Amino acid sequence: MEFIFENLKSFAGAGLTLTLFFIALVYLMIKLPKGPKKTALVWFSIFSLAIFFCPLWILYAKFREDAEILYRILWMIPMGAVIVTAMVEFVSSLDKNKETAAVIVMVALIIISGKYVYANRQFKPAENEYHVPQTVVDICDEIIVPGREIRACFPIEMVQYVRQYTALVCQPYGRSTLLYGAYGENYSVIGKLLEAEVYDAKKLSEELRAADTPYFIVSSDKKFTENMSNYDYYYVTNIDGYDIYLDNNAYIGIDFINHR
Amino acid sequence: MTFAKALILLVGLFLMPFFLGLLPTKKNMSVKITWAAGFLLEWAIVYVCFLPCIIMNFHFSVAAKASVIGCSVLSLIGIAVALLEKRFKEIFTVKRNRLSKREIVYLGIFLAVVLFQLYKTIFFAYEDGDDAFYVATSQIADSSDTMYRLDAYIGIPVEVNYRYALAPFPMWVALLARVSKVNVATIAHSVVAPVLILVTYVIYAEISKLIFENDNKKRYLFLMLLSVFFMFENVSTSTQGTFLLTRARQGKEALANVILPFLFLTLFRIIKENLEISFKDWLLLITTCTAAALSSLLGNILAPLMILALFIYMIVKKQKLKSLIVLGSTVLPSIFAVLLYVKY
Hints:
The structure holds 2 protein chains of 2 kinds.
Chain A: H1 2-12, H2 17-31, H3 36-52, H4 57-63, H5 79-93, H6 99-113, E1 123-125, H7 134-143, E2 150-153, H8 159-165, E3 169-170, H9 175-180, H10 185-193, E4 198-199, H11 201-210, E5 215-219, E6 223-224, E7 233-239, E8 242-247, H12 256-259
Helix pairs in contact in A: 2-3, 2-5, 5-6, 10-11
Chain B: H1 3-21, H2 31-55, H3 60-84, H4 87-91, H5 101-123, E1 124-126, H6 131-144, H7 162-165, H8 169-180, H9 184-212, H10 216-231, H11 240-246, H12 251-272, H13 279-295, H14 299-316, H15 321-329, H16 332-343
Helix pairs in contact in B: 1-2, 1-3, 2-3, 2-9, 2-13, 5-9, 5-10, 6-8, 8-9, 9-10, 9-12, 11-12, 12-13, 12-14, 13-14, 13-16, 14-16
């Protein structure tokens, strides 16, 4: 049963929204007369909770690795609708002259018990309609070769955006390499090499070449053990503080000089 | 975005869902909920067209063409059915209700909050790691014409991961990008996300009608509080509110905030209508289960579980065996999807 409660905890998080829901459920159970409204809001919620707390999920968790998403069973309950219905019923049960104050208290209750979604640091003003950092867009536009795919190694902070903007740019390592070291040696090693304070130019160029990666994009502040050109990766240009290197031995399908 | 592209998106996201929605909805249902129901049918069509193509390794274009043809044909049938039912006259009859001061305040705040949420969704980027998979999967389908055969993160050929391929919601996003010729990332983040937020509120507005019937003051207060509630439901990354305002472009979000609430609405309505399941109800339920299969694998469990609740209620209320069989048959798409998952 422990993992069921862990799921509940991960769903409930740090706020008191779930507490508010249980209070609302009890209130509606007492307040609402028998009928479709009570069946849908109260009994259906209890049915869904019973499914969520069903001990049979223990068996499921034994055979499956994704038992941590069990909390999604709670999505069956229109939790917001239940809480807010209870609030509306409560406000309506008061004298008319108390309505405004009661509504303000209800809004305050929602605010206090919850957490403001837009206070999340993951929200940032969009730099473009793609919701991808403009630097990533500019770099991709610079290296894309019409009609074919090209592989480029981006800094760790950019990997999750590149292929959202264009699938014509492939990568030697991606989010899954960072999350759980996927894809086997060549692909994972590069991700590891980029975690170093000072980049090992020799090793990096060898691994990039082994993973068929002609482009290497790196922050201009990054330090290398040697110049990348010693290993045939030549500086092409700088975009928004990121240097672009190109493998001199790679054939990218067109005359690079004319292309630029 | 040029005018032509905007027009195509307007048709794909507003006009076509409305025409499609005319098929599984009843005569007395509002324009807004007809539009929302159309999304479910559009997703069901996309699921039916794309799934065999994914399994048989057909090109994305083949499935895309089949979906466009399917949606267009069913839209025309929807229009024809509505004409036969003489629905358009009712739809375009404007009902004017005089609102009280308080109703205007509640409705005004609600609309302002929703506008604020749409503004935040369009002009603010939410950094969600899962987009690196879902949006890239749509991007690959659109540009390489293959489905689930290339790794989303790095682009190397891979074996199909059926955990994701059997719930191909990203293909719907890719389809919108293909027909409108707009970048997939734009479609996902700046077009689909705000539209799905609107669909969610339309569904809850309809739920509020069932709860409070004609009491507009209560309904608008409900909607006002609900819109605030969603903004403050960010107690964890797992709640419906958080998904709605941060990830309204992923299949999981569509399941949590469109498909399951719509199913709740339908079941609630059936209970209110004395447990009578008409052909249109049956069509709506089967469409919902198919749309759930497109959105997420878990949809194949959650949608039938919700229908099971009604099934049990109908047994308690001693309904006829025929009605139970009719209701039971609506989960067939989910059973089919689960069997496919077991096979692959």
